[in-house]
Specification:
homodimer; alpha/beta; 10 helices
């Protein structure tokens, strides 16, 4: 455990730790710290490396099974709430197509990529849905969209004094994976404006499934969306109920690694089952 | 079991019935048929009388517990998918307000009420969200709306020959509970136009939670919506995954009455757990 930057202890019972909330990064922190801590404590994390998810789940499942603990991995909103909607939407509307649009909002990964470019003093990257195609999908059109047709990337940059803005713009626009597959707009602003107008962390997005029911193929659309003023705070808010669920499942004898797919809605709520049935069903 | 109008047998294993889908009405059919059938078979239903939900759950829980069966009550979209979103939204965004808007679409209950009015030959009632207030809520305003501020009711009527349209309109608009609390528009059309343009069953609606995170009270909005061309077909489509879940839970030793709150997303999906983690988390 070399680099334990953040850890929140959520709740203790008689001095015993119930659940740890692991708030570290997915690139290098969680792959080592996650299994180590999960072998000793029940944990919740917001691991978000989609490509490595199966491996992380396997490592966490091994650690929790050996340790007799329970961990919920990959909570937050994507993975997390968006993942739940992907599964529910596919299940409720079997014959259909799911599309996602991200934004409008700040992408941390893309902002970091922009800030790594030579001559960039400050920078932020806004991911913006391509409105025309978002509206088509919302209205039930079945489209197979490329990344470029779904998202626009808007970079706002403060250049170092004397830096060549043309070179910065070209370097960003041609960056493979991050910007090359998209239409990218690069704007330069002065530092004062950047601090004033580009320091917040909005985000959001859409999960939309368009599909068909019945022999006449009736078009049906399901949509979930988020508009977040502050991405990190909302992510924390969406992680918290999984700590409640983890404690309940652990107390009920359940062990091992869990995902948001394995947790019934009632376990997330502070309300009793009879309150839920009466008030919210 | 006097009046068994519809029943679908979903699936049998070696000639044994796995799950019954009960597709009868909530007013008189399910309160008697539900517990009777649930004492013998695992069942799924779309019971939708919100005011009697706790009593129905108790009756179904008693029947299934005695019978050693498992039943999922109140599936569909409301109750059902909307209920899940109410619980998830409250859990993920604890400090907030949830609003619902229904429509645009045909309300069966209100259409039946209209058709019961003297002089009405054919009639349909469209529930329409009050667009101005829907947009405010979608944009994060915290509003405590009355029924009149949320929904508009639009009735399309074919009058019997010689009927007094003024009396029909007045009778509808003054009907307590159904129309009196709302702004209601009553339009009269001829039978040909009615059959041509008012015979389909669209519906839909919105669940929107606006709330706050963090010490600075950052505004955050979560929204779920449905746009359905054919309400009954979509309801059936949304019930089906609960039959899958019921069979899995029963095979796993679970018994008793369940709601959509008690069922983890993974149980609804035809995909394996490892497919879900890899593809949809």
């Amino acid at each position: 455990m070399q680099k334990l930057t953040y850890m929140i202890i959520l709740q203790t019972t008689n001095g015993k730790i119930d659940v740890l909330m692991l708030c570290n990064g997915s690139a290098t922190d969680l792959p080592s710290q996650g299994p180590e801590l999960a072998s000793m404590f029940c944990t919740i994390d917001s691991y978000d490396n989609h490509g490595e998810m199966s491996n992380y789940f396997a490592a966490m499942n091994e650690a929790t099974t050996k340790g007799g603990t329970l961990s919920v991995i990959a909570t937050g909103w994507d993975p997390g709430i968006f993942s739940i909607n992907r599964v529910l939407f596919e299940s409720f509307l079997a014959d259909g197509t799911t599309n996602f649009f991200y934004g409008p909002g700040v992408s941390q990964g893309h902002s970091e990529a922009v800030r790594a470019v030579d001559g960039v003093k400050k920078g932020v990257q806004y991911t913006i849905p391509v409105d025309e195609n978002l509206q088509k999908v919302q209205n039930g059109e079945i489209l197979d969209l490329t990344p470029r047709e779904k998202q626009l990337r808007h970079c706002v940059i403060v250049a170092e004094e004397g830096a060549d803005k043309g070179v910065i713009e070209k370097t960003i626009k041609e960056m493979p994976n991050y910007f090359e597959p998209y239409n990218t707009i690069v704007d330069f602003v002065d530092e004062e404006e950047f601090i004033k107008n580009h320091s917040s962390m909005p985000h959001g997005g859409f999960v939309i499934r368009t599909g068909f029911t019945g022999a006449e193929r009736n078009p049906e659309t399901m949509e979930f969306s988020l508009k977040l003023a502050k991405n990190p705070e909302f992510t924390a808010s969406a992680m918290l109920p999984y700590a409640r669920a983890a404690k309940r499942m652990y107390d009920n004898g359940d062990r091992g690694a869990k995902t948001v797919f394995d947790i019934a809605p009632a376990l997330l709520s502070p309300k009793s089952h009879s309150e839920l049935v009466k008030e919210l069903l």
